[in-house]
Amino acid sequence: MTVHEVSRRTGVSIRALHHYDRIGILHPANVSAAGYRLYDDTDLERLQCILLFKELEFPLKQIGAILDSPAFDRERALEQQITLLEMKKEHLEGLIALARGIKTTGERSMNFTAFDTTKMDEYAKQAKELWGNTREYQEYEGKSEGRTKEEGLSIAAGLMAVFSEFGKEKHTDPAGSKAQELVKKLQDYISHNYYACSKEILASLGTMYVEESSMKRNIDEAGGEGTAEFAFQAIQAYCG
User: pTM here?
Assistant: First the structure.
């Protein structure tokens, strides 16, 4: 899809999409020979995540760092967003009921409880603290600070190169020596470029590699179909 088509489909302005590309949080999958940005379904999934975190009032720079972190859990983010939207819905229904009551009775109302957003604001604050204050996120943000767009893309490509190596071994025993060496290489790469990757974190990442659709697709594109599943099994064996 072109940037105009994405804008029409999502309601996000062309200007905003250009800005997201400029600051590095949403790059189009391809650029045509004529220089037009071209987006695919994976890009739209990422755009959804960006908009969800914007609802939680995260700054764009922080959203980009969270989404690029190997520890990002999309399902957990969606659960938080659902909860926040339900709270907003309840808040709006309370305001509608108040307005209707005033209209129906024609009487003044001194009830201001419907305007109270304390509970909703507190939940949003807790969600922001959860994503922004983890040790892994802080370490990742520190390591990524000052990196250029090209450096960030190079590191991401390096991670996919490791998965490409997994793909070459996917027909072997995931508990075998070669597969286990690759798991150690993956762990070291994450620790060096993102944050200290303990076995507990690595095990969680392994589960995400097969359960998070866009991540699974990217890994399978790097190493061939079945690579994400093989990497998951190898990580399970490595982490016990």
Answer: 0.52
